[in-house]
């Protein structure tokens, strides 16, 4: 049974006490959760609004939304030296509009700063915190859309294997992001998930697991709210081999790290654009099977036209690559639909009597395949739980013995189920086979 079929049957939204007080996208282990506690599988596109700053009237968000993407990674500049575009990037009304239209079209806005792409300038990178925390950005824009924003601090910054001393470089990478986390979290209310790109132009996912870098950063973050992003330009990094790419991803997932492939493409640049053909199809197939989020590069206006999803920014003019990204029967955004953020669809309402009902437990992932996790508020630890099928027949019972209870659902057939804890209202979830 397909995920889309299960999701289509779920008529009730998920909600929790934590979700109502959280107000931000947040992580739990390797899972990314929406403000309503629903599991988010990011799947969408990279898109530079206003044609990389060259056309203030070019905002194609509604066309992007026709792909059914649930997230858009938007490229922006804090200080663009190009006088032809810097005026647009200093236009905070334009930034607000780009984020607003993304969210209006039910897509999470992953806002990314592009200034230091492939740079190893640690001081400059740390200095970006002043852009993110300024009133024009943080107070006036990001906080307004806080339930639907991910802060992708900087694109593809810092080195690891690119350096002459990888051990020292990795320590610098880790310590620089510790300083960035400290600077941002010291800003009252800066609770957004911070997405951190892999080093070596974003490609080196090994950096996340070497010496427990990613998990150490998550524990260091007082909000424990970090997402890690690798860019799959893996012609050399994984030898363009599907088995090696799967192994790279599995190594990260094995450490329970929230991972997104922030850029996936069909072609990789070298000295010239479009230099190498990338083996991206088995990679996306693997991501679909293992519930790993990905964002395709890119919607339009790329230096490599064959790497564009749309030839001219319109949904009606998909390239060959774009048609595959959108319509593939294995992983296409239009055909194998990833669920939208529940907050963007209906808000955090149970749908029961059309009122908000406080339910102080979180259920994830949804849909599930082998097991579900029940994260309980302390006031309901010790209560019994019941899992029922759609007919109301009890299929499993148990007790919430601590703050995180793991329930094996591997032996249950695919379908829609209800989880009831004590006297709380039931929670609907799907089982995928």
Task: Report what the structure shows.
The protein has 433 residues and is of the alpha/beta class. The chain has two domains: 1-24 and 352-433, Sandwich (Immunoglobulin-like), CATH 2.60.40.10; 42-338, TIM Barrel, CATH 3.20.20. Helices cover 29% and strands 21% of the residues. It contains 16 helices and 20 strands. It has an eight-stranded parallel barrel, surrounded by four helices. Helix 10 runs parallel beside helix 12 (213-220). It starts with a helix and ends with a strand.
- Helix and strand content put the structural class at alpha/beta
The coarse silhouette is globular
**Care to count the β-strands?**
20
Name the CATH superfamily assignment of the largest domain.
Answer: Glycosidases
| Major beta sheet, strand line-up | 4-5-6-7-8-9-10-13
The number of domains is 2
- Tell me the radius of gyration: 21 Å
Low-confidence segments, given as residue ranges, are 1-21, 350-359
List the SSEs and their pairings.
Layout: H1 3-9, H2 17-22, E1 26-28, E2 31-33, E3 39-40, E4 43-47, H3 49-53, H4 61-65, E5 71-76, H5 86-89, H6 92-104, E6 108-113, H7 122-127, H8 129-133, H9 135-139, E7 149-152, H10 166-185, E8 194-197, H11 206-209, H12 213-220, E9 226-231, H13 242-253, E10 259-264, E11 267-268, E12 276-277, H14 280-290, E13 293-296, H15 320-327, H16 342-346, E14 361-364, E15 371-376, E16 384-389, E17 394-399, E18 404-408, E19 415-421, E20 427-431
Parallel strand pairs: 4-5, 4-13, 5-6, 6-7, 7-8, 8-9, 9-10, 10-13
Antiparallel strand pairs: 1-2, 2-3, 11-12, 14-15, 15-18, 16-17, 16-19, 19-20
């Amino acid at each position: 049974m397909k995920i889309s079929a299960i999701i289509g049957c779920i008529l009730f939204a998920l909600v929790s006490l934590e979700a109502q007080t959280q107000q931000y996208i947040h992580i739990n282990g390797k899972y990314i959760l929406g403000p309503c506690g629903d599991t988010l599988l990011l799947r969408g596109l990279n898109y530079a609004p206003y044609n990389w700053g060259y056309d203030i009237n070019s905002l194609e968000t509604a066309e992007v939304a026709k792909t059914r993407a649930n997230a858009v990674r938007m490229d922006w500049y804090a200080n663009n030296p190009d006088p032809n575009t810097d005026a647009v990037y200093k236009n905070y009304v334009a930034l607000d509009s780009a984020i607003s239209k993304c969210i209006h079209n039910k897509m999470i806005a992953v806002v990314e700063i592009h200034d230091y792409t492939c740079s190893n300038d640690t001081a400059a990178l740390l200095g970006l915190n002043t852009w993110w925390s300024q009133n024009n950005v943080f107070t006036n824009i990001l906080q307004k859309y806080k339930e639907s924003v991910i802060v992708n601090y900087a694109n593809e910054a810092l080195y690891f294997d690119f350096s002459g001393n990888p051990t020292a470089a990795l320590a610098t990478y880790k310590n620089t992001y510790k300083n960035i986390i400290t600077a941002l979290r010291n800003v009252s209310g800066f609770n957004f998930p911070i997405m951190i790109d892999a080093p070596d132009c974003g490609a080196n996912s090994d950096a996340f697991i070497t010496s427990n870098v990613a998990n150490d950063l998550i524990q260091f973050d007082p909000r424990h709210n970090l997402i890690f992003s690798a860019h799959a330009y893996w012609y050399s990094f994984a030898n363009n081999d599907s088995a090696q790419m799967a192994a790279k991803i599995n190594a990260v997932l094995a450490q329970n790290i929230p991972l997104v492939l922030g850029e996936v493409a069909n072609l990789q640049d070298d000295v010239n654009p479009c230099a190498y053909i990338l083996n991206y199809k088995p990679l996306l197939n693997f991501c679909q099977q293992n519930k790993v989020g990905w964002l395709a590069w890119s919607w339009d206006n790329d230096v490599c036209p064959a790497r564009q999803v749309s030839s001219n920014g319109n949904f009606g003019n998909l390239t060959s690559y774009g048609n595959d990204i959108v319509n593939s029967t294995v992983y296409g955004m239009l055909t194998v639909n990833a669920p939208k953020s529940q907050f963007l669809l209906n808000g955090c309402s149970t749908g029961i009597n059309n009122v908000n009902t406080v339910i102080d437990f979180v259920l994830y992932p949804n849909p599930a395949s082998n097991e579900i996790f029940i994260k309980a508020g302390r006031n309901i630890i010790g209560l019994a739980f019941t899992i029922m099928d759609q007919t109301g027949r009890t299929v499993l019972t148990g007790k919430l013995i601590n703050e995180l209870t793991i329930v094996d659902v591997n032996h249950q057939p695919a379908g829609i189920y209800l989880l009831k804890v004590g006297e709380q209202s039931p929670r609907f979830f799907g089982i995928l086979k």
